[in-house]
Amino acid sequence: MVAVVYLLDNIPFKNYNVLVSDSSGIFDKTKFKEGIKKDWSDEHGFDVDLQNRFKDSRTISISCFVYAKSLKEAIEKYNTFLNEIDKKGSKRISVIVDSLRMECQVFRDNSAETNLIYNDSDAVATFTLNLIENFPVKRILQSKSKTTTITISSNKVMVINWGDGVEQYTSSSIQNYSHTYLNDNIYYPIIMGDLDTITQFQTNADILWSKF
After folding, report:
1. In the chain, N or C: fewer CB atoms in 10 Å?
2. pTM for the complete prediction?
3. Could you read off the pLDDT of 176-189 as tens digits, one per residue?
């Protein structure tokens, strides 16, 4: 069986004593928002604008569990992990399956209900992590350079998440963007938005996913 690794802001879930039993939505193609529709009572079916189709947000669910020696320890581990996710700003969830890697910029919206199983000697806390990826259409890069450069032209605003917690919005009047990292590492920048409107794109990073 191939091992699946889950990271929260590039830190393995296991470092928080959290293990994963299952997940869904990470590789799903999201549904479309409802387009402009015209319906006539004296005509069959309906007419809908299929030339302007836009994706809805992506919902991701990750089933987690925590082992501990006591009920108090289980709750503390669970609470520490959730508090990290709930810090201000979006969080990066990375999923690595063999040589395949997916990056998602998410936040927690719904409650995380916990089921506790315990006795005198040990305890298990199970919970489902419900996350929202509000920008579901993305281009994912892999940068091995100290400074990542991106040239992008579009008449629409894009969001660039540089992979180290720094995020910025593009402008139609500016094409060149760069970001220098504090540490030497491999980073995974994401460009989010209406990628079909991009007319020029260049980068010194590798492209992992051109459009997902």
Report:
1. N
2. 0.88
3. 999 999 999 999 99
